[in-house]
Amino acid sequence: MSFLSRFARAGAVAARTSLAPLAAAVALSIGLLAAPFDAAPASADTHTDAAKYYGIWNYDQPDAATLNNVAVLECPDGSGQCDPQLPLPLRLPQVGWVVFSPGPNGTINGHTDGGCTWNFTVHPSGLELSSTTQQCFNPTVGSVGNVTKWSVQVHGNRETEQIMAVSHQPNGADLIAPMASGSRTKVVHGQDNGEFVKRFLGDYRYDPADMQTLTNIVTTDKGAAYPEQGTVRFTAAHTAHGRIIAHTPDGCYWTMNVRGDTAELDPATQTCHTATGDRSLIYWALVTDDGHHINSFSAGSTTAPGQPPTNTFTYVGALSRPVNN
């Protein structure tokens, strides 16, 4: 059975989570999916300065209270009854970056850290998707979906955005994943990342796992789900400026690059060899603005000796610095 048709379940935990709609909706809502532009996109408005959008933009840390940078996976009617296999509505914090650069015919391309490219037209009020049918395969969650709206506004080094995603499920249900309030900060070229690195250094402990919110729940393509727990220690990588090493509870360590408030794997794919098998990560992104809480999203695999790989995903990762740390 493929990843898109499996169910996650955790031993004695009664709640069951369908990975099929979750994978597609998470991919859409966190902006990791993107797509080739249409063959003949509209030209940009000649009265708009497109250059102000160019560069790397990181999501600010999600705010659970205001729902800034939090997409909400839900039924179109808000009832939560259209797909009983999911704990709806489900809040999905956003993590990662986008690079805006010149596109064809006066448009702008937005390349995300998931490896896909969206195409936008430039208007006096901001950027809008050049079509509502853009989509592509996202390897970090193994699915394809559709984003119908992505509006972007920029004021100096601050960006705001609104996203609407639609996910069509194999069981016939349509789920939406709106993010009414999103914000990013531009990564300024040549900036000193020392202060940002300091926010990560030290010990962070996984918050209590919650099957209803999927906080710190690892799901697999073999139908399992289990809690992510323990302490992650972040240390400075003295071999290169702006790099950190994440020491995870399983005894592995992962090299990450810090740009602004966001740290991501560098190199992008890493493997740790343990006594029980191999663990690989193809994506791990962290964000912290306050140096006390980290939001994360990760995808990878585990491989036991003599067994095929098991794909793993943590869609809603949350860590906090211990009070005495």
Automatic annotation (TrEMBL):
Keyword annotations from UniProtKB, A to Z: Signal
Signal peptide as annotated in the record: 1-34
Designated name of the protein: Secreted protein
Organism of this sequence: Actinoallomurus iriomotensis
Lineage: Bacteria, Bacillati, Actinomycetota, Actinomycetes, Streptosporangiales
